[in-house]
């Protein structure tokens, strides 16, 4: 009998050549960036959904996460869909509804993995973890007839007093136990594990303050004692720096959506766009990784507040 090897399992990614989802999604985002647009912020710039942006939802109210959030946000903005609900053709049939004739669905992805054993040269057995992406098609409720009224109802806008601190948001950020202090600029310093924020009164609106804080809090999750996220930053402005900033940007958008406010654009976005363009051109898979890192950061923060 072959003795099982104690070698560490390796991980491989399988991509179907006929449908390279990495290239397709990244190409769309690159096109937006080259025009000075951030794909993940489109929902807040669309008249039909700007006042009630929320996570895309499955038919059973479970939110989509990671890269699928970006894909469906982008599609809803471009097609004018107001419903947050998305489902497959079969799911619509199960709900006794029908996709409208001529409607085209949106491809999203599902990540999965399986274990593969193979015999190596020395007669031992090596176990490899094979990761792969599956694509499948979903339709927005706006493309489907016969669903219950709940699927077509547009969420109510979130009312916020922009001139004063929002107590619910104040409590949320306080419950993370992050060390936040008032200083001259917005930044997270890992060596001292502290978030510095300018005085609340220096921001144009309360929501702009919370948007910046959400960005810095996403950075805060990278600490080795939390998510231990290291994207290879060596010096200010290098590729690792650009990657971490993209993760924080997406994390701020995800968190802002969950908390019900607009992630106001930062002054540095114009400069960041050029570095993000280069990163995504060099690595077609990174937008998927960045969305995954941002999703994990958001979930980590939410669990701190709602254990």
Compose a concise summary of this entry:
The chain is of the alpha/beta class and 307 residues long. Helices cover 37% and strands 17% of the residues.
Observed structural traits:
307 residues; alpha/beta; 2 domains; four-stranded mixed sheet; three-stranded mixed sheet; 8 helices; globular; disordered N terminus
Low-confidence stretches: 1-19
| SS-derived structural category | alpha/beta
Report the span from N to C terminus. Answer: 47 Å
Global geometry: globular
> Order of SSEs, N→C?
EHHEHEEEEHEEEHHHH
Protein name: DUF1738 domain-containing protein
GO molecular function, one term: single-stranded DNA binding
Domain N-terminal: 20-139
Pfam family, one: MPTase-PolyVal
List the helices and strands and how they pair.
Blueprint (H helix, E strand, L loop, with lengths): L9 E5 L6 H14 L31 H14 L6 E2 L1 H6 L3 E2 L6 E14 L5 E16 L3 E2 L21 H9 L4 E3 L4 E3 L4 E4 L8 H15 L18 H21 L9 H14 L3 H20 L2
Parallel strand pairs: 1-5, 7-9
Antiparallel strand pairs: 2-5, 3-6, 4-5, 8-9
